[in-house]
Amino acid sequence: MSDTNFRAISEQQKPLFTGYNKTTTSVEVMKGVNLNGKTAVVTGGYSGIGLETAKLLYKAGATVIIPTRNIAATKDMFKEYSSRLEIEFMDLLAPGSVDSFSGKFLSSGRPLDLLINNAGIMACPLTRDARGFESQFATNHLGHFRLTTKLWEALKSANGARVLTLSSLGHRYSDIIYNDPNFETIPYDRWIAYGQSKTANVLFSVYLDAIGKELGIRSYSVHPGRIVETNLMKYLSQEELRRLGVLDNNSNIKDDGNLKNIEQGAATTLFCATSQLLSNIGGVYCENCDVSELLSENTEALKITQGVLPYAVDYNNAKKLLELSEKITGITFA
User: Fold this and answer.
1) 141 vs 55, 73, 193, CA distance in Å?
2) Could you give the CA distance from residue 170 to residue 301 in angstroms, rounded to a whole number?
3) Any residues with CB less than 8 A from the CB of 160 and at least 6 apart, and which?
């Protein structure tokens, strides 16, 4: 790593030793947290760790808005909740629907205290959206890039907003493929594509925090942990899950001590959304309810379970990703 690149990496990317750990649950993190009067948008808030996140924010008093492609099913899921739980249509792969959702929120005049970019897909076969963009990059990064830019004024008006974007240990599979992010000329590899999208989630958080902190907006990327009970696994066969060490030879879940349940998986998101320990910290990758360790470039990253690689938290790379995202979407992030 060159001296220039090293200086581009925040000195805040180091553990705080918060006292939490990988077994900490969402309920433990939210104990005593009061979010009365706050407003949160949670993408993917209808399943998995997104659902747990939305429920705990709601229980703490926040108004929670869940964008979804399936209004009827999501409304049925939350039928026991009050009007503080709002459900609106949005599809991250459809720019027009992202604009409509954002426009409706902005027209309400409300500040946005929390934007939780939680929705995502993993290791799917090659598919493209209507624009020809590879679906993992388009869903996990470009859709949230568009949503965040459209809601930026509402985040500014909150005077203390936070933006959280769900990343993954999978960022280690690939840096951004700057010359061909949509696999138009190079062979498609679904794990490389997933890794690229997760690196994009981290770099986008780095950039957002750099431009947002003077406006009262702090940004974080989150690795929730290895969780079997989510829809992310739907594209993986049992053979692949055995190869990844998730299932044993009898197709039972094989817990090597590194798996988490849903409540543990949502804990880091909620920690980053609410903890006063992060009041003066941002642009960092977090896991296990703490800021992650910065790994060496020479680390055999796929053999360990914690930490973030330097290329994913480098501000120079974050600027390159921003320029790429603006170019291929036609959006200028003012």
Assistant:
1) 24, 25, 11
2) 10
3) 113, 216
Nearest-angstrom CA–CA distance, 110 and 158? 8
Is 207 among the catalytic positions? no
pLDDT in tens, 281-316: 999 999 999 999 999 876 665 667 789 999 999 999
Pick the CATH number of 14-233+262-324 from 3.30.70.20, 1.10.150.170, 3.40.50.720, 3.40.190.10: 3.40.50.720
The whole-model pTM stands at 0.93
d(CA 254, CA 80): 35
Residue 21's identity, in one-letter code, is: N
Mean pLDDT in residue range 250-261? 72
Distance from first CA to last CA of the chain, Å, rounded? 31
Cβ atoms < 10 Å from Cβ of 302: 10
Which one is catalytic: 46, 173, 194, 285?
Answer: 194
Residue 62 to residue 160: CA distance in whole angstroms: 15
